## 1
Amino acid sequence: MPLDTAIADAAAPKPVADTARIALVGNPNSGKTALFNALTGSRQKVANYAGVTVERKEGVLTTASGRQMRVLDLPGTYSLRARSPDEVVTRDAVLGKLAGEVAPEALICVADATNLRLVLRLVLELKQVGRPFVLALNMFDIAQRQGLRIDLERLSQEIGAPIVTTVATRKRGLPELLEKVEAIVAAKNLEKGKVEAENVWREPTASEIRAAHAEAQRIFKACVKPPERPDTVTGKIDGVLLHPAAGLVILLTLLFVMFQAVFTWATPLMDGIDAGFAALVAFTNDHLPHGLLTSFIADGLIAGVGSVLVFLPQILILFFFILMLEDSGYMARAAFLMDKIMGGAGLHGRAFIPLLSSFACAIPGIMSTRVIDNREDRLTTILVAPLMTCSARIPVYTLIIGAFIPQKTVGGFLSLQGLVMFGLYASGIVSALLVSFVIRRIFWRGAVEPFMMELPTYRWPEPRNLLMNLWTRARIFMARAGRIILPLMVLVWVLSTFPYPPEGATGPAIDYSIAGRVGKFIAPLMAPIGFNWQMTVALIPGMAAREVAVAVLGTVYAVGGGDGETGALSTLLKNQWSLASALSFLAWYVFAPQCLPTLGVVKRETNSWIWPTVMFCYMVSLAYLAAFIVYHAAVAFGLG
Amino acid sequence: MSEAFALSPEFNPAEIEPGGLRPLASARRGDRGVIVRVTGVSGAAESVAAEELERRLLEMGFVEGAAIEVLHEGLFGRDPIAVRVDDTRVALRRREAGAVSVKFDGR
């Protein structure tokens, strides 16, 4: 291995003299991303590494001497011995072997000054790589407050690298850090032509890790005096938040508040965006000559962009909560509390965050499965994520419940409509757990991936840092989702528009389109589950986004163009559909893969057509089965 | 479902080992001690090789000689557990904790 690396090093293109490349490495929770944000400010670019779905965050900074540097924020790790795709990227980037990347000239190893024990072993590994690095002792203010004394000079000698103390969130120590980085880059450039430090790193064996630990321990004891006022707050908070019973109650309360926020705070914004785009569509239709191009711009493009943007408020609020929970250190506790419940269904504790996100939209949920190391664990999570009730189902649920479920109270205070809504959510969750249970017990019977997670010290989230991360998340969502959703919206527009109705046609235009024909063609297939052809036709444009089905039902029943007329539509449906058909439609919507963008994202994230196909097939089968059972049970009870 | 919450049937760490050692898997909240041995064999079927599990444990700080204290237990089957290893708080399942032998204080 060392030989391979040496060759790769020699073959790597020589960097331009003026823009040095540096990379940030460090343990998770060391404040690495905060340091990255502080160093580069808004000059960041987020993309993927070539060929893998690992996020690549790069920024540019200018040092005091006017020199430009490119900074790469590598995924956090405890070791260069990579286990997950994320950690492979870190290892290969550090070794300078990452495809499509120029080897960094220097590294900044970011360490939490109050938690040095584990990072020192990583530092020893970095030393073997031979690439020059600076150790940034971050969160140094907290270390000082605790009365932790670190012999910086001795530590620097021991690890053979310069050390700078930093407080990333207050931007303290950054000029000194950059000065040191510039110095080692300059020294490296001077030495060019001479023999560079050789890379002697290779994957350590267990006994080598033990030896490195002993060495790290020796350095630690020699250089760090234990804190005079150790942190006791985290222990006290954990006493409550990790209490076996109270901890779960608090977690559930937190989730409840989060959902309330996602749905209630976002509503005015979403209504605003909706109204804005509806106005824009109307404006376009009014001011451009009627015809194909106008229809394409208004109903295809503008409506398509709108259907993506409308979810942005919910996703921002959701990410805001998730980032708060992550930055404060609570997310690891949530995974701890949920591990047994998730594990019972064969899911990894880390599947918690992706499944949580899927309540807003399965797309960010599926994207965030990247934190799961094990491939089977990750695929299982991806496959069940769309069963979580996403917000796009809500308009459909609201319409049908409003039309068919009477507004009465049960047991004195519970609304029947609310209960049905709750039941739909619950069936989504239960079926997700059941499906993953089946996958892990029958198809992938392998043992569960080990669950080991550091529980970091609690910290107040830093507002500036939080906002920057939120902005990054939002940008990633918009870019990725937009690239997938928009073309699909255009496709669905084509299917629902062509061919045109013949002259003198009486029915709505969609009847004559490809979507309408396909709908009528498969209608006999759907008859056993109680769907009439109008319902079936609505399902096809509904593939673009679930809530579109509502608008299409409006169109096929020719109710005022289908916009904002849900009151009239709901009365009409009540007269046209039997209760059994309505319930069957709801059951279908709990399971059906009524969302092409989700399938598109699954294709992207798994780099294969197999998984979206598997997802589509199993979800359609479940949906058909559930709708069949519900319909026939309802008919048997005389609700047909 | 309740069966799923229990530890897997093949999971059977030795209760008491010679020399008064016990696997971390059997520890209760508040137990303290010193890690005496870390292996990759937890007593349960693992998805990773023994050497790999051993290395992961070592990398998280589970190393011979480290002080350990059980801080918290989960609600269902007291699993997973949160422990303090020297200065680091780590959460892990009792399955994997079967690979860590501890000499507990006062027992």
## 2
Amino acid sequence: MHWWLPPKGSTFAGPIDGLFIAILIITGIAFVVVESGLIWFIVRYRGRPGRKAFYTHGNTRAEVIWTAIPAVTMVALGIISNHYWVEIKGRNSVPPNAYPIGIHAKQFEWQVTYPGPDGQLGTADDFTVRNQLHVPVGRPIVVHLSSEDVIHSFYVPQFRVRQDIVPGMDIRAWFQPTVPGTYELGCSQLCGLGHYRMRAQVFVHTQEEFAAWMKQAAQEATQ
Amino acid sequence: MTTVAATAHGAHAHHDDRPFIRKYIFSTDHKIIGIQFLFVSLFFLLVGGLLAMQMRWQLGFPGKPMPGGGILPETMAPGGVILPEYYIQLVTMHGTFMVFFAIMPLLVGVYANFLIPLKIGTHDMAFPRINMWSFWSFFAAGLVMLASLFVPDGAARAGWTMYVPLSARHDLSGASLGQELWSVSIILVGLSSILGSLNYISTIINNRAPGMTWFRLPLSVWSLFITAILGLLALPVLSGAAIMLLFDQVLNTHFFDPAAGGQALLWQHLFWFFGHPEVYILILPAMGMVSDIIANGSRKPIFGYHSMVFAIVAIGFLGWIVWGHHMFVSGMNPTLGSSFMVSTLIIAVPSAVKVFNWMGTMWRGNLKFTVPMLNATAFVAMFVIGGLSGIYMAATPVDMFIHDTYFIVAHIHYVLFGGSLFALFGAIVYWYPKMFGRMMSERWGKVHFWLTFIFYNCTFFPMHITGMAGEMRRLYDPNQYTFLQPYQPMREFISISAFLLFATQLIFFVNFWWSLFKGKKAEQNPWHDNGLEWSLPAPAPHGNWEKVPNVYRGPYEFSHPQAREDYLPQYVKLPTDREPASAPAAAH
Amino acid sequence: MGKLGSVAAVAGGIGLVALALAGWTRQPAVQGGASVTGKVKFTGKAPANPVIDMTEEPKCKAKYTAPAREQIVEVNPNGTLADVFVYVKSGLPASYKAPAPTGPVTLDQDGCRYHPHVFGILVGQTLAIKNSDGILHNIKAKGTKNRPFNISQPTTMTSERTFTASEVMVPLECNVHGWMHAWVGVLPHPFFGVSGTDGSYAIRGLPPGTYTIEAWHEKYGTQTATVTVTGSETKTGDFSFAAK
């Protein structure tokens, strides 16, 4: 059993995991300071007969310090986070040469449409496969997400990519896989009784394997 | 307004010759209404817990027949094995009952009603009859929601967040009447909240006793005041959305149907515009009562009273502009993601300020760990964890990864259980003597506290780990995913801890009910506290005071150098005190 | 009126009562002895049924040596069409009451396919839905006259449902395995059949009368024929569907 984030599988994983660790350090420090402070106070200032508490209404300097430090930290965190947010999800974030794949989500399956040998979605040589997402490694992939019925969500943990799929909207999400292997795509928004089974296999191929698979799959599709 | 307040002011605090039904059933006495909320909400807390136990059975022991599951019908659990469609009903109704019928009414319905007139020094609420309707609409809402569990096709099942189109389209969810009854019940809950808020706001503004200036109000009252404003403005949005949903469900409207020009995301914006202030409604009163209890338990004034007030107001205000952080990956314009991230990170600051001030209160105090103080201290320790985990979600790139995973479930439960519920355990014990004239058992209160604290952390802390691993929410059987199979032992551990946690609450329930009849009779001010309520006999009588007391100081004058005791109530006049001129509100 | 009149009135009254009694106790149309049988022919080139890729469900895939195909157009080697639902659409007397069903109709999910693919059931008869695969199936019935239902079976189990209204045909589907489809004809009488692997069907036990028989196919639509039967004769009713 893995006690940490899943293994990295895309170019997003580095920055996101890095941000996670930065937050872990910040919150970890806060956690230790507060919890150990509490435990110390509980022990040190526990009631004893004859003791009197220290009568004070506060300390303005302390208020300023413990307001300013969290505020500055949060602002810094926001600036760093936003940089990556825009890179991943921004309106102009999809790389122009991204390989397009159509994903139509419906209760309870993923209908994956490939652009076929001509590499263009929406042409005659497109073909659709159920519950299998094949992608080449090292290339940006853009998935065009649509829904047949309810809100679903496209989620591949190792790619650190998640995007809700909303009926009536055409949403694009992109990622660049970095490690060949098999992964799992899960639906990440409750979509009905089969939500827990709405799962697809994700195959990250080397460029050659992907080309070979594409050729074979396109042929099978025409049968 | 003045006339009504004057009438309330002149009300009778003495001879009570009302018939039983007017005294205890259709009562307009704020204290009785508070107690009615208490009994009914504790029942719904139990219901919510039972629903969770069934969920945890399926997650810990997937596909196995549940002990006692034989009483469930074939459509829910044939042979005691929970079906997927029943599982998502459990998920939905657990959240619904806990948020709307347990925590919110326990914090607001009980303590706003019970404490506000007592703590500000008046005979009753500004509008006692409206107050009564606030309880009965809540009661009706609860009955409707309970009924939805038993109707054909079962209960609502789109999560307590009820996202459309799943919730609006019966052909897509499999539910029908149950889904509609959810909407009806929520509309009634909204009504109850709005009626209550009207009273709380009016009463606090208008009916404070002479000398009770704004900055002499206890923090419990400040937090209930801000909470009431949040409720007044947020619940109508929820009710409006629920009406639109109901119309889509039964009247063939298409507010949320994209095929007919509606928008699925509209529901999310409406729901979360309500939903975020709602979570502050679920925490602010707890924070306020914790402040009262910690100051009392430390025998010291609250550290930084004014900062604490400003923090409550800041949280209340900022709470309106963060709702989009529930929708970062929803398909909403990503630019909004940036702006909501900023506001969300900023709202962490006033909460941090409060934590430091609680610590400052305990620093150099003379700490007495009664049951309320134990629970209040646990609130601080657990709320910190819940609040810190929120920072991961505020950072949008990280939220992309942990949204809709168990990391969120851990966060929710750390703030709602570790926070609000511990605070409630403390508050219930603390004000029990004033409500019922008896004390709850101190010893069993401590046993309950320690066992709850241990089992609670065992149940919810591991969810941070499984969430980090990518375990999604609302999954009937996570083992369908190969990458989640290794976590089954952890799911089993969580489930067993949850069962033990639930069982432990029986100690609290027995203590509560038994002490009503056999508890030690309470003295007037058992905690040696300073609030106005402790000037009254236990239990407090109808109408509270014959003549409301004058107020000479703030509520946290513990260990005052001029006092003989280590507490100095607000209503006790020292030779050096001047009489307050008149009631601080509009002249009567 | 007089004595004669009274007697006449009483006799008339008794007569009326006797007639009413006779009418009330009149038996419903007895199960007859006539039959309609026939073959459903298919002309033209049979279209290929799409191959089903069951890679996502290894437990089902393992049950096949050659990849399974969808069951949309099932043409038999002898040039006939299977899975055509043939039934009496009209012609039974209004007072006809179907005999009580002798047992349930079983629909099995095996190898991620419905068995049978097309079948009939009486109104009020139990449909026993069996999951022989042991993996999650959901059975969604999209009736218009019957209340839709959508139930899950996460494991090996049997669920029971009944239909309350006559409806031809109620589509059934599984949302977890999008290729799974079945069709059920719900009728208030037992006079229906499904063409088999030799293209033949049989409707037995018909009372004498003139009937409209309809043949229904999921892709090629419906065709009707009129048949008159008496006594215990067997009439032939053939149908022919052409490739489009």
## 3
Amino acid sequence: MVEWKGAPGLSDEEITARKKHFRILVCIDGSDECYQSLKYAARLGGGVDADIVLLFVRPVDQGLRSGGLQVRVARENMLKWGLELPGIKYLKKGFDILGELGMMDGKDWSEHVVHTDVDGDPLGDNKTEYVNAKGKMVVLKLKVAPDIATGILEQWELGPYDLILFGTSGRWKGPMRSFWDPAVAQKVAIHAPCSVLVARDLDVGHGHLICTDGSDKAMKMARWDGEIASHCNCPVSLISVALDVEAEDEAKANVDKTKKVLVDMGIEVKETIVKVGNPVNEIIEAGPNYSLIVVAESRKTGLRRFFMESIAYKVIGNAHNSVMIVR
Amino acid sequence: MTGLKRVTTLGAWLNLYFFWEKKWFFIAMIIGALMLHMPLPQGLSPEGLIILTMSVVSVILFVTEPVPLPTVALLIIIGQVMLMGHDSSEVAKSLVTDSVLFIAGSLMLAVAVVKQKLDKRLAWLIVRMTGTKTWRVCFGITVVSGLLASFVGEHTVAAMMLPVGITLISLTSDDPKKVRNLAAVVLFSIAYGASVAGIGTPSGGARNAIMIGYWKEFFFDPTNPETFKFIVSYVDWMIHAYPMFLIQVPFVTFILFWTFRPEYRDLSRAVVKLRKTIEEEGPMKAADWMSILIFFLVLLGWVLISGEIGMGTVAIAGAAMFLVAGLVRWEDINSGVNWGVILLYAAAISLGLQMKETGAALWVAEAFLETLAPLGASEGFGLWAAVSVLTTGVTNTMSNGAAVAVLGPIVLKMSVVANESPIILGYITAISSSFAYLTVVGTPACTIVYASGYLKTTDFLKVGWKMAIASTIIMLVAAKVYWPLLGV
């Protein structure tokens, strides 16, 4: 993961504390998928007392598309009627879900409301921070940004975050349509500096399917995900795909090597799978039996990820179920 | 350093993300450079090629928005000085016309009107007239939004009516999922009610003012009485276009209820609560009456004297009256108007006039007619339909004012080549530019109601195509049957 160097307004202690904590950013848009991913985040974060930040990004109000009358005029008029900004309801619902899951138990929570002025939007960024005595943080954030993907990526800069979760309802657009207008989830998955979980019908009970090719990168990813999976008692399975029959033994060795690493960490491996064929197709085909597919991504920059069409990128774009890219 | 290492180092220095985000800017620039260096097409002057290139680049930038849109205006100004060799003072002068003054004045008026808090009075009027049945409330919203938008512009009405619509929705149910379709019919009643009305009068939208300006610039000759018909007055426009708006109103409600079947057929609960909220406002105050008086004075000014002093002068006089009466603060106007839009329209109109002067508009018009000829659409009704479809397509990808600014010169020249009435084709272009029902960015009213967070982009597609077909048919029937009765 890219090293986070702090954010304006944070003291050295706060920066250190944030780096120590496991921090999860859950993107909220009001869809069922986003609340499923929030429940999963609560499960992942529960065991390590992770910070959970619920983020709703509101595109900045601007008047070019509204015929020259700033949308803020309409927005201010709505506020005068006592109507809330879009997103507040969705964040409140997310907060209620965390409460129902016991994430906010205890009476030692303090509440801070923070407003940040944003150029071009008088209503700016607004957040409510809940911090308990152990320093665990739950944040509801209503952010303004030129577009939703940029808002999510900018939030990482203020973070840092170990994992970004967002829900998406379908598979992604093809390369041509992506070139024209990449979907929000697609843009974030390409450019985010940390691990990203794209939730599609995220069903929590079926465990993680970790894809491995035996490389150092894959081993590192397996360790990272193994630890995460252990926090939520999610079973772990391994898959390796050989391009042809000759490489099948090598694929099997890769699975065994990864299994050993996990077992040494005290993590039980439920199942190992070796397949022969196109890695992307085989992984996607095996995926629906699990809660999510876990793939490793290199340190390539966002554009290279798109142009080089890595296996991870193809899997996250075409899978029928949830996928986590580990960086 | 080896070649490979040099490339790698360069790659590390370049911020690829920046280039990726701005890709359409660079594509537009490359297309522009290629066009400027291609062999001169037959019948096109070198100046015409430059202006045509600037227009193509501007359209790409309008549609894809890789840079803030006012940047396009700045590039147009730079292009006119650097590529065309015009004097910079002359270019600056060409930017301010009555149409531009009108757009600026209307936007200032829009902010002033929204700030008067007359929305609650309007809401009271609607629920008093319509009762509590959902379809009647929606019809009432469409009528009131439309009547207002036909004079003060759809953005003003959308900004005023949006809280009314959202209040009705949220008072019906707190859960947005339970009122998905209700939200769609209520909010689209505001947006489409305002959109269909924007064609009604010249002050209904910037596009109308732009077309009136083009007619004058392209065809009016003070020494030739036959060209006086190209000075289209406020009332002339209303006589041609207002009936079309009135005919479209029931279609809006019908199409919306056909597409989205609201979960609640009766809004009694919400209407009762809304009435209570509105009644807390108490009786009308002196400031409210003053606002209404100024509004009617502006309206009278447009109808009676805009022919002599210009619609722009009336609009800015109205804004000045609001400021003098202390009904709005300059700070509110300053922050509520996006001045970049005015600059953008000014530059687009200036470019449109250059299209005419350099012969580029004529060249494109001839080429377009040649393409339409095999389809039997190079004259008469076929040409009208083709222009309407072209304008509808373009306006759904960019603001409708920009669409008219870009297409206007070409269409008006086409009318000359095809021996058609420039007035008819001008009306068809300006009116079709309001058929941007399919996208969020198509019309200001759609953008504003979308900001409520209740609608999805797919909702616009779901209902928009039906609206576009209905509006096109109504307009073409008017062009064929009604306008000839007016002697066009």
## 4
Amino acid sequence: MTQTAVQLPLPGFEQAQGEWRSQYSRQMRAEKPIRNRSGVEIQPLYSPRDWSGERYLEDLGFPGQFPFTRGIYPSMHRGRTWTQRQLIGLGTPEDYNKRVRRIIEAGATAISLLPCCSGFRGIDCDEVDPVLLGTCGTVINTTDHMDRALDGVPIGEISTAMNDPSPFTLLAFTLCVARRRGIDWRSVTGTSNQSDYISHFIANHQFYRLSLPGSRRVLLDHIEFCRRRVPNWNPVSVVGQHMQQAGATPAETMGFTLSTAIQYAEDCIARGMDVDDVLRRFTFFFDISISLFEEVAKFRAGRRIWARIARDRLGARDPACWRFKFHGQTSGVDLTQQQPLNNIARVSIQAMAGILSGLQSLHTDAYDEAIACPSEETARVAVATQNILREEARLCDVIDPLGGSYYVERLTDQMEAEIEGVIAKIDAAGGMYKAAETGLVQTMIGASALAFQEQVDAGERKIVGVNCYQVEEDPTVPPADRPDADAMHRHVERFKAFKRERSQAQVARALDALARAASSTDDNTFEKVVEAVDVGVTHGEVVGCLRRELGFGHPLIVA
Amino acid sequence: MSNADTRPLRVLVTKIGLDGHDRGSRIVAAYLRDAGMEVIYTPPWQTIAGVVKLATEEDVDIIGVSSLATDHLIVPKMMDALREAGLDHVGVVVGGIVPDEEKAALLAAGVSRIFGPGAARDEIVDFVATLGRQSRSDRIDEFLEANP
């Protein structure tokens, strides 16, 4: 709720403010209202009349204290800086392994894995036009592939984030590799980055594989299994990023994301899981746009709303459940193909917005993001940007450094009201699952995307190099780094041979067990996925089996 | 003589291959629809055979293919399939991110134009309108040649 600021007794304030207002209006005749991307009108100046600190303890508190507006831990980045987590994935498992080892040698404590688009579609490498294989991620279809990708990588000591939508085969492969190496599953840490099927159904259609009810079931099985067997793994990452990338405003994005988290939490509770056990492992993943103050207000408001939802609406008693842990990725949508070096400036500002908001981990885009998969050189600049902000700009020195700014606090209150309005709309539609199923959310996002584009087209929203400050330039799109065709061919041939030589009887039994688990109501499908990939069942076979049992995933696209 | 056909142009806006990033294709579809064209919009991941079938059944004048990842690499195969199906008259444009060294293959295969990020609305609409009218008159010419 937006609170009206308390009128502090400030002798002479009204007179001085009145004088400033009249001087301001003389200089600014016929000024048009300015609105941020979420539609909040932005004033030229903020003062103690906009935010006075009267509700400091209720609305802000101290870092690590409810409602966590200023940060979820007492020492925030001053104690432990954010985790640098760059997305990587290209070519064969061997290509990935080379790159990931270099990153670990350079000191990384967290890695990521982005699979090939064919994997996102739920098919194996022998079913795809070879020219497309490994161009956008690594081709990993089996436990053996994962073993090669993670050769020499200390699973159990390093945190792994995987773009691994339902039915979570990449985690299943990783667990089987851990078992082969004698590593206790309780030491496996990381996040199932793309577990949020609702966001895929709505906005990132790329990752959507199983029917809506099927996805709902498999996610719950996955959460239940992980809480029981892989307790330090984060099975849920609620993804706002897709919605903002697809065109939702920052306030809409936060509202949709929190509504999604409510849906998943309520589904877990309905399934009989303990809310305190489950919510502590919820994480969030967001886009960070260049609209700096708006992003800071979005994240501060989001933290506060989540704390209240988790405690008061969902009934979690453990403070760990109230903490809004989030990963941020600088937004590729703001980057331009024109004058690509300008993107380094954009990414710096986006990263700054995320850091000033108190994020837990950060991916900075490479400046060639708008035109290609990053080269090693551009990826290095992206990491250096984070290092410069930490070491040279020293953004870690003070916790929540924008807190207490009249503007930022007022905007945080206003964004909170906008976000709560979105959540109320979703509640009225019967919750996020229903709102997605009926296309309400897709329609809202489509309208916002088109409205934004029309502002750009009309020149009301300026983008340097696109609708202003254009320069004559060579519009060359640089050559893309494509995987080695021969190596990929050998990878596919080796995969075909593997399929011929594995124990077909074991494979048939495992697929049968998976199908039976899917058609029953009380077996855990993810448990059967892990058992299946352990005996050589492939990614495509797992997804195919679950699609037959639970239905094929067709996203609802409103265009 | 006037073969003027004033029915609205019919445009298939689609994505083939494996990528699902569709903000660009949704926006271009809205542009074309606002300009009075009839837009047939598909979800991503269409197969080449599926596009050929749809283009035939929907009797389109233009196909717009959006590619944000690497799916443009199979556009030449789609062009071959369109020719084999006798859809030579259908104009094809590609929008999205295509590295320069990979553009030539698309243009040589018969793609009329490749629009990059930041292409202006009017530029896209005007080009598609002109190409669409051209496709339609080519088709009338083909018909008249075949039926003198």
